[in-house]
Amino acid sequence: MKESEEKYKQIINSIPNAVIITQDKKIVLVNNKACELIGKNYNKIIESDIYDHIPIRYVKVIHKKIKSILKDKKSNIISEYDFKCSADEQMNVQISSSYIIYKNKPAVLSNIIDITEMKKDLNKAANFQRNFLQKCFPIIKKANMAIVYVPAKVVSGDFYRLYKIDENLVIGIIADIRGKGIIAALSISAFDVLFFQEVSVTHEPINIIKNLNEKLVNYNEENYIAACCFSIDFNKNELNVSSAGINQFIFHKKGQSLEVRIAEGTYLGMFQESVFDEQIISFESDDRFIFFTDGMDFILDEDKVIQKYLEKVSISKFKKYMDEFLNDTLAEFGSLKDDCTMIELEMK
Questions:
Q1: Are the C-beta atoms of 194 and 213 separated by less than 8 Å?
Q2: Helix axis angle, 182-199 to 205-219, nearest 10°
Q3: Best exposed site among 177, 198, 254, 272 by fewest CB in 10 Å?
Q4: pLDDT 10s digits, 2-16
């Protein structure tokens, strides 16, 4: 057994990344790379409590993950964290954790990769992405706009754009590119160009959606795109909506209960012969419209708590509420299941 243990140590020491095995909250095996990362020698780390080496803000999240891995015998559960390493420098790490049997007892093996440099590049891309997004309605005197935009990862696969056509017409779109992260973010740039091309040809949302579908069905393989396109005509006081995958939106007429409206349509790029619905809604001053990607479908939960709150507060207060809700979710679970984007419009 002693010889076997030494061979086991040699194997994990040959791994270029930090490796830690935990059992009953104790570190029972650790390689040299992990000792360097923590900044302590092997004898001071071995048999120590794993939570003594974790920033306090992550203890609850990591404890829940370890319990889940052990209970369901999960493998390759990946998470990302940032903390100060032994050199007192900020470091970003990706941890892949799996259930194993160590010395005849259940344990968790964690492989830790330094992704600091990659994260810096992604943060630059995320900052560019955020700065690129619109903060105000294109015709300020016509409507107020509030935006919620929280990526599931560093960069987002969600996208929105509103174009001012003239002093009384705005064309907008909200889209969810299939997948998350850098690949989805790159697809956004191409989709933005396609949308701009269509807006220069037609101002009818249903025609824009049909034309985008025809282009994407031939070139997008299975990377389907969910989208909702809308036009706001302030001469007619009408909002025209056509959807492809993002089929639900909210209309809140002042003084009344909000309504969940549906415009049917399959994902862009899915079928050549797809049929898309169109909804035309007349609006007045103080009426509101809310468009959102499927990461925020919880707004439509059956208990309607969020919807009832929305009916009572201003768009700025509702934005603040949603931002706090998503940030609390991030703090508790470490990540979101999907990118979350919402456009809230209030007519003046």
A1: no
A2: 130
A3: 272
A4: 667 777 778 888 888
Which contacts (CB < 8 Å, 24+ apart) does range 305-310 have?
307/250, 307/258, 310/250, 310/252, 310/258
User: Contact, 257 vs 311, CB < 8 A?
Assistant: yes
pLDDT tens readout for residues 136-183: 999 999 999 999 998 887 777 888 999 999 999 999 999 998 755 556
> Which residues, 6 or more positions from 46, have their beta carbon under 8 angstroms from its beta carbon?
27, 28, 29, 30
The structure's pTM equals 0.72
Q: Which residues does 237 contact at the CB level (< 8 Å), separation at least 6?
A: 282, 283, 284, 347
- Structural domains of the chain, ranges and CATH numbers in brackets: 2-115 (3.30.450.20), 133-347 (3.60.40.10)
Kindly give the residue spans of alpha helices, DSSP state H, lying in 220-314: 305-312
Q: Read out DSSP for 66-120? A: HHHHHHHT---EEEEEEEE-TTS-EEEEEEEEEEEEETTEEEEEEEEEE-HHHHH
- Amino acid identity of residue 273, one-letter, is E
Token duo for residue 106: 């259940």
